[in-house]
Amino acid sequence: MVRRTLEISRRQALVLAGGGAAALLTPATLAHATGNDLRDGMRALAGKIFYTTDRPGRWKGKENSHSPMIKVDKKGGDVLVRAATQHGMSGTHYIIKHILLDGELNFVKEQIFDKTFDNPRSRFELNDYSGRLFVVSICNQHDNWINWSEV
Ligand SMILES: [Fe+2]
Q1: How far is the CA of 89 from the centre of ligand 1 (A)?
Q2: How far is CA 50 from CA 31, 123, 124, in A?
Q3: Given CB 3.0 to 4.6 Å as the disulfide criterion, which of 37, 65, 123, 126 pairs with 7?
Q4: Could you tell me the CATH number of the domain that includes residue 65?
């Protein structure tokens, strides 16, 4: 019997999990991967370590208020990415930040929110980018939610 290895880099797993799930993943089970391997690795983690609209895992029913909406506008080489999470901001329950990752899950930019003043909406300006972008929205109670868009 062939045992399937989870193919996603340790760094990618840490970014996806916001650091909290690092103890669950050992270096021996992680290997560098790109392309379809990366997507397979993400599919294996979706609904368990991070959540998506299609894979809400234990947070089923929270999809609409936690999965970030993404709008991308491209004009020439300039790209404007806007993300919004339809989530309230109170002293005990709020969106901590949005993280923008490139198609290989490398960190690009982030927007940290002040729970007192901000709505969970972010704007990211990029120069000369094409391909997939991921947005991670982190709730202080309901973990990390990921959505993506193509530029
Ligand atoms: Fe939440």
Answers
A1: 9
A2: 19, 22, 22
A3: 37
A4: 2.60.40.730
State in Å: Cα 110 to ligand 1 middle: 19
The pLDDT tens digits of the residues spanning 71-109 come to: 999 998 899 999 999 999 999 999 999 999 999 999 999
Domain count, the chain: 1
Alpha-carbon span 72 to 33, nearest angstrom: 27
Q: 57 CA distance to ligand 1 centroid (A)?
A: 14
pLDDT tens per residue across span 29-77: 333 445 566 678 888 999 999 999 999 999 999 999 999 999 999 998 8
Residue 54 counted as domain residue: yes
| Residue 142 alpha carbon to ligand 1 centre in Å | 5
Altogether, the residues listed in the chain come to a count of 151
Q: In this structure, is residue 2 part of a structural domain? A: no
Q: Which domain holds residue 79?
A: 10-150
- The closest alpha carbon to 48, from 20, 90, 10, belongs to 20
Strand partners of residue 149:
133
How much distance in Å is there from the Cα of 140 to the middle of ligand 1? 6
Residue 5 lies in a domain: no
pLDDT confidence of 15, banded at 50, 70, 90? very low
- Is the pTM for the entire model greater than 0.85? no
Distance 15 CA to ligand 1 centre (A): 19
139 CA to centre of ligand 1 in angstroms: 5
